[in-house]
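Re: the request from the purification team.
They wanted to know what the chain is likely to look like in 3D before they choose a buffer screen. I agreed to run a prediction and write the result into the notebook, where they can find it.
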Amino acid sequence: MTEGKTETLQYRFDGPEHLPVLILGPSLGTTWHMWDRQVPELAQQWRVLRFDLPGHGGAPAHPAGSVAELTSRLLATLDGLGVQRFGYAGCAFGGAVGTELALRHPERLASLALIAASPRFGTADEFRQRGVIVRTNGLDPIARSAPERWFTGGFAAAQPAITEWAVQMVRTTDPGCYIAACEALAAFDVRGELGEVGVPTLVLVGSDDQVTGPAEARTLVAGIPDARLAVVPGASHLVPVEQPAAVTDLLVRHFSTAWQTAHDTSTGQIPVPAVQGAAPAAHVAGPAVPAVPSSSAPVQPAMAPPPPQSAPVAEIAPADVGPQATAQGRPDPYEAGLKVRREVLGDAHVDQTLEQADEFSGDFQEFLTRYAWGEIWDRPGLDRRTRSCVALTALVAGGHLEELPPHLRAALRNGLTPAEIREVLLQAAVYCGVPAASGAFRVAQQVIREETTPPE
């Protein structure tokens, strides 16, 4: 296990040192123990490396702000171990890391399996809202709802020990690292790049997954050249835990038959061995959460069909295209402004505002996107938390209560807590007047209640 280095990850090895390396990537809120039931069989053919996300499973709480950053930390960890070429299987967030590896570092990747994954996980608003809930209420609401997101109802009822294990696993996660991971998933969108994935890919999904289900899996298969699809019956989102035998069998078959050799030297790239030098044999500290408990009764895995040679075609939504540059020699700030506007105010609000724009108001909305968001909000001189404080104060001073709700939601997304928003409004009361602040408090009270109340 690495010790306190922000550029590397907590990890463990299983299996003989001479075998090729296979990496298993975890889902958000889980630890490497989610793969416990796959390891005994996989370790017969591969040297299995599992890693924890920052702040998960007792790992150092150094948040990673993007999927790309987390991927860089994984590669730094592998570089330190002398591992250059490897196979990779990742679940959900771990699947996003696998896609990032395939797109940005294909020379390192021999084969890929994406489990319960998606080219875009829900909407940015959903993950930023989850971050607001955790920042305000802690991880307990997320932990209590984890079993219904991760498992089918029948499995959760029949396996209370595993259900409780899942709840405790989330509860022991560092909240700041969880929020950072939510932000990373909010910004992750590779729908337009799937055609560039060039490694053998298996897409695996539980038939009853309500988080990233068969529809998302088919989008991946439709976009990734020659990808194969396997749907595991009787499983939800955390399919390696719920149907371990079926998942293990599919992974063994995929990585046994679809292990791409290193790039040919004729391309100018130097082939690298699976492992350079001997990696340490054991790197395991006492985990913060226990291994997956044994089932009180054997879980009978549903027989998964072999991955078909051709998969159903799915539509991939095109990326938004904004106006082109309007000035010679200077980048048009519209695209940057639209991105910032969506990140701060949320997709739902921006979509509604732009949809309501007509011939009369369209130019004004373009003006706001280009200059307010592309020029001012995107400047590096102040962070977004500070800009939210300034924006709230200015709106109170001007008496613009109708504009407060979206900026209050933005302030929560930008990291302000309800207590900090209260302090901003108290400060505004001194300098902007009690009547203006009184109205602002009424609006803020309602918005904060709506945004920070955990889902039923």
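For the purification team: The longest helix spans residues 434-452.
Please add any questions underneath this entry.
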